[in-house]
Amino acid sequence: MRAIALITFTAAALSAAPTTVIYDGVTSNLSEAVSEPANLWVTLPDLTRATRFVLKPQGACLDEFCVPIPKSRSAAFLRGEGTQKLFNLAELARTLKQPAIHDDANSVWLFGSRPESLLEVANTLEAPDFTLPDWKGASRSLHEFRGKRVLLVTWASW
Amino acid sequence: MSVAEDIGGIKDAGPWIEKASPEYTVLVDEKHTVATLYGMVNVPTGVWIDERGKIVRPNEVAFIDNRYKAMHGIDAQPYLIGLLDWLDKGDKSIYAMGADQLRERLNQFTPQNLLADANFKMGQYLVSAGHARDAIAYFKAAQTLRPDDWNYKRNAWLFADPDKDYGTNFGKEVKALNGKPYYPAPDLPKAPSSNPHPQE
């Protein structure tokens, strides 16, 4: 049993490689992640660094929102032990119906928008907030304009 | 609040902003964050947001004038009249959309559209990381998954040769519309007569 576990783990460790992860628009460079065609295994510290999700007894949590990990599905989400524990970010994405695509030539995984966060707009009718640089480089947010009527207009050089 | 949906960032959008010398807020949106959040598919797109941060009118073509009307057929005036009316009257304006109509409009976040957007964002990342050739496959995937999205086509073409790499260009795509509108016309309520001396 032990020998098999050791070989399996070593095989996984051999395929750990630097990987760029883009999640919620934030780009993180992970020094070690295991990329498979349908799975992305990251360390727990990297999970939090790249996505702000934290693994807790209740499951994978982002602030107050938690995705439970039932025992029957734990093998799909987790492998390894202790400090070598790895979390499958692609499985989390599937659970949240979040698109996940990867470009192996450039070692990039990109996770698209979570549907439930966008669908909230239709529930609340609240204009989604955003923070972007202005043309002089200063950071500006939509919420700064509370108290005023705003015409938001997008345009482009093209 | 004016937002440039330009993968090329200040390099591409800057010259236009400088020319305008704006006193209002102009932001640079390399990742098309705003287009994603609001489900926008073309430019210029206008959204009205009230003092409490609520959407009043979502995603409509918003030109200041009719410089391109020969191409797209939409008169800018009615939208501008509506905008001024809302700025004056707020909630009481007939141009403020009701909750039901708003909910009908805010319905484009389908799994296919989200996958299209993820592909576009991969393309955007690869361009920004210096891999514009590798980006093409992802831009193509986005365009195939969401063919009515003009942002996906037009910003992508900037980083390749449209004819050689995409087998098309703006002129060809517009022709392919074959009568379908380039912009859906805003669904504005009929304005009450502003003529102080009606004939009847």
Report the major sheet of chain A: 7 strands, mixed
Strand order of the largest sheet of chain A: 7-8-3-2-1-10-9
Low-confidence stretches of chain A: none
What is the N-to-C order of secondary-structure elements of chain A (H for helix, E for strand)? HEEEHEEEHEEHEEHEEE
Overall pLDDT confidence of chain A: 92
Low-pLDDT stretches of chain B: none
Helix content of chain B: 40-55%
Mean pLDDT of chain B: 94
Element-by-element helix/strand order of chain B: EHEHEEHHHHHHHH
- Please state the CA-atom Rg of chain A, rounded to the nearest Å: 19 Å
Number of helices of chain A: 5
Percentage of residues in DSSP E strands of chain B? 5-15%
Based on CA inertia axes, which overall geometry of chain A fits?
A: globular
List keywords for this structure.
A: 158 residues; three-stranded antiparallel sheet; 36% strand; globular; B: 200 residues; mainly alpha; two-stranded antiparallel sheet; 4 strands
Polypeptide structure, described:
The complex is a heterodimer of chains A (158) and B (200). Chain A has a seven-stranded mixed sheet with strand order 7-8-3-2-1-10-9. Helices cover 27% and strands 36% of the residues of chain A. Chain A has five helices and 13 strands. Chain A has one domain. Chain A is of the alpha+beta class. Chain B is mainly α and 200 residues long. Chain B has a domain at 111-176. Chain B is 47% helix and 9% strand. Chain B is built from ten helices and four strands, in the order βαβαββαααααααα. A two-stranded parallel sheet of chain B has the order 1-2. A two-stranded antiparallel sheet of chain B has the order 3-4. In chain B, strand 3 and strand 4 (55-61) form a beta hairpin. In chain B, helix 6 (111-128) runs antiparallel to helix 7 and helix 7 packs antiparallel against helix 8 (150-157). Chain B is globular and about 50 Å long. At the A-B interface, strand 9, strand 10, helix 5 and strand 13 of A face strand 1, helix 1, strand 2, helix 2 and strand 3 of B. Strand 13 of chain A pairs antiparallel with strand 3 of chain B, so a sheet runs across the interface.
